[in-house]
What does this fold into?
Amino acid sequence: MHMTLIDPDKQLPEASARIAKRAAAFKTDAIMVGGSTGITQEKLDKTIECIKGVTDLPVIYFPSGANAIAQRCDAIYFMSMLNSLNVRNVTGEQSKGALTIRKLGLETISMGYVIVEPGMKVGEVGEAEVVPRDNIPMAVGYALTAEMFGMDLLYLEAGSGAPEPVPSDMIRAVRESVRIPLIIGGGITSSEHAATVLRAGGDIVVTG
It folds into this structure.
């Protein structure tokens, strides 16, 4: 399965819609909207409106905080950065946004979000204690934590612009340890990268 990540802060809403339309033509399975730390509610809503005007693919909001919550998305990742050193990223922002999400009646998908070396900007902003690429037991520990907390998904993230994806042996070990679906993102810049991630046990590949 493939999902396309669109950051509303990197282009105008109309340009985001063109990206989504092109991704749909290439048979992506869903659109993820998010990634920026400073996105406004107005631009977020307009971006999703434009995307929904050109495709029937599900649009899932990938939040960076409670400051903006997508009202027209099909679902929202209710996610916790499990290896953040700042409790705000583990449960703080979630508690701020939970009531609004409930009032809006949005479908939530609980997700453990784990940052793997190098982590890039998301690791820095999220104050993550990144999982070293050679520390497989640490990755497995976080994966089991997500599953034992009852989360629906686990997302291993190398960070946007990472020179390479999460290591295959780490993906394989995590896949063998948990039953919940596994999302892999960051550093996936070619079809070969995507195929390698899927062969290792990733269920969903994210690019964008």
